[in-house]
Write a structure and sequence with these properties.
CATH class: Alpha Beta
Shape: globular
Structural class: alpha/beta
Low-confidence stretches: none
Order of helices and strands: EHEEHEHEHEHHEEEHH
Pfam family, one: Phos_pyr_kin
Largest sheet: 9 strands, mixed
CATH superfamily: Ribokinase
Keywords: Kinase, Thiamine biosynthesis, Transferase
Mean pLDDT: 96
GO molecular function: kinase activity
Pathway: Cofactor biosynthesis; thiamine diphosphate biosynthesis; 4-amino-2-methyl-5-diphosphomethylpyrimidine from 5-amino-1-(5-phospho-D-ribosyl)imidazole: step 3/3
Strand order of the largest sheet: 3-2-1-4-5-6-7-8-9
Distance between the termini: 23 Å
Bound molecules: adenosine-5'-diphosphate, (4-amino-2-methylpyrimidin-5-yl)methyl dihydrogen phosphate
InterPro entries: HMP/HMP-P_kinase_dom, PM/HMP-P_kinase-1, Ribokinase-like
Length: 284
């Protein structure tokens, strides 16, 4: 696959920021984002929104960060370090979403602004634990999605946000049209949960053209952090100045390789694994 150009040693690399929750098991959230950013050659900055008590079996606790502390992390990084793109993951509450939207307007993050924004609208963990309060759905729909350069829901999130149940290509297209009409510049409807398909088809739409990426489906239970990995790889590519379709092409190759080399961990679902970038092939 084609990789992003690395910075020469000693020179400042491209920077990107993840605005997300932590996963103590290291599989999803901030850990997944920083792993992908580092291995893609990008300096990752962090605004933590929530601390989760989480392992490979599930989430047993959540501690949310005060909204002004979330906004402060974003403001202090953008005004000093500078970032080429940002992504959001788990945001926990409506007040945190509102604080992010306000500071994004202040520092120039979002569609039609200098810093593109990938919105991964995380609502629940793969184990079914709620990661976004029900009361936050209005802020997500009415405030965050309208400033997204690209919004990247999985099929469960599509159903919660739009009310559309995706079962085939027609309903996937209808969902992309609805998400775009909510104000996102691009809508990416991920097909990882479309288990009836031999592929894992992701559909990208900008109000005019549909781009469908049909990569092979890999048969594994170890896909924890796949959505975060795709969104943070897109964020890295956007930080490098790639277009949204090219960022998706890079990110889709990246996540497919990372799912191919995912590994067992604990007693539940292991993580997708971008460490393929730095690992040795198995001896013959
Ligand atoms: N088993 C799989 N094989 C190949 N690609 C997959 C598989 N599962 C998910 N993907 C891809 O990983 C990315 C994340 O997808 P998805 O599982 O839909 O989101 P999430 O992790 O947010 O639930 C998408 O690009 C999707 O197509
Ligand atoms: C902190 C945090 N962020 C995001 C996810 C979603 O990832 P997954 O769908 O693989 O559980 C998660 N479980 N935890």
């Amino acid at each position: 696959m084609k990789l992003l150009p690395p910075a020469p040693l000693g020179q400042t690399p491209v920077r990107a920021m993840t605005i997300a929750g932590t996963d103590s098991g290291g599989g999803a959230g901030v850990a997944a984002d920083l792993r992908t950013m580092a291995l893609a050659g990008v300096h990752g900055c962090v605004a933590v929104t929530a601390v989760t008590v989480q392992n490979t079996l599930g989430v047993s606790g959540v501690h949310t960060i005060p909204p002004e502390t979330v906004a402060g992390q974003i403001r202090t990084v953008v005004t000093d370090i500078g970032i080429g793109a940002a992504k959001t993951g788990m945001l926990a509450t409506g007040a945190i979403i509102d604080a992010i939207v306000d500071v994004a307007a202040e520092v120039g993050i979002g569609r039609d602004r200098p810093i593109p924004l990938v919105v991964d609208p995380v609502c629940a963990s793969m184990h079914g634990h709620q990661l976004l309060a029900t009361e936050a759905m209005d802020s997500l729909r009415e405030r965050l999605i309208p400033i997204a350069t690209v919004v990247t829901p999985n099929l469960d999130e599509v159903a919660l946000i739009t009310g559309i149940t995706v079962v085939d290509q027609d309903s996937q297209r209808a969902a992309a049209i609805e998400l775009h009409s909510m104000g996102a510049q691009w809508a990416l409807v991920k097909g990882g949960h479309l288990r009836s398909s031999p592929f894992s088809p992701d559909l990208l739409y900008d109000g005019e053209t549909f781009l469908e990426l049909d990569h092979e489906r890999i048969d594994t239970p170890h896909d924890h952090g796949a959505g975060d990995t795709l969104a943070s790889a897109m964020c890295c590519a956007l930080a490098h100045g790639l277009s949204v379709p090219d960022a998706l092409r890079f990110a889709k190759d990246w996540v497919t390789e990372s799912i191919r080399w995912s590994y067992p961990l604990g007693a539940g679902h292991g993580p997708v694994n971008p460490l393929w970038r730095v690992s040795e092939p198995l001896p013959d």
